[in-house]
Specification:
8 strands; about 50% helix; single chain; elongated; about 190 residues; 4-stranded antiparallel beta sheet; Jelly Rolls; alpha+beta; 9 helices; 2 domains
């Protein structure tokens, strides 16, 4: 159950062995069924969630529409780290696109553990740097590239998304209609 998160910390945020063992002992396993909401806008993150298996979609919602902003398909943290770190409400929503398994840890024990092993600042700083880099690239691509170019990037770099995620969700992510996506797919294939 802890293999994926253990490997994640070993490669992304190395802790000493005692720190990893203690951290893993604090995580609880949770399961969500396809269609269940993990995070709702205007709430605050109270726990870190690590995706052990399954697919999560992250999106913004208005009364008129939902716009997908990310999909999580690989073992990684899926929490809104800004909301978690700053005790602020989130603008994001998250939904299970398949049955999923999460490992979760509440904020207080996580913070105490990171302080104990003096790696908390490093973990938060590195996490934010990665998130900001991803967000900047996402925004840059959305503004400067055509839907065809964006789809081609998904085809090259995120084929697992195209294989696992319903096409109408991919269309929302690309900010196009499903019909336009179908035409792009025909041209590129």
């Amino acid at each position: 159950m802890y293999d994926k998160i253990s490997k994640f910390f070993e490669t992304e945020y190395p802790l000493n062995q005692h720190g990893i063992e203690e951290l893993l002992s604090l995580f609880k396993r949770k399961e969500f069924k396809k269609g269940e909401i993990l995070l709702k806008a205007n709430t605050s993150e109270k726990e870190l969630r690590f995706l052990n298996s399954g697919i999560v979609r992250e999106f913004y919602a208005t009364p008129e529409k939902e716009t997908n902003i990310n999909f999580y398909t690989k073992p990684q943290f899926v929490s809104d780290l800004f909301s978690f770190s700053n005790n602020s409400s989130t603008n994001k929503n998250q939904e299970a696109l398949s049955d999923i398994e999460l490992l979760t840890i509440e904020k207080e024990p996580f913070t105490k553990l990171l302080e104990k092993y003096e790696c908390g600042k490093s973990f938060i700083d590195l996490s934010f740097q990665k998130l900001l880099k991803q967000k900047e690239l996402f925004e840059y691509n959305r503004i400067t590239k055509s839907a065809d170019e964006l789809y081609q990037e998904l085809f090259i770099y995120k084929t697992h998304w195209l294989e696992k995620i319903p096409q109408y969700h991919i269309a929302s992510y690309l900010n196009i209609t499903p019909e336009t996506l179908s035409r792009i797919r025909k041209r590129i294939s």
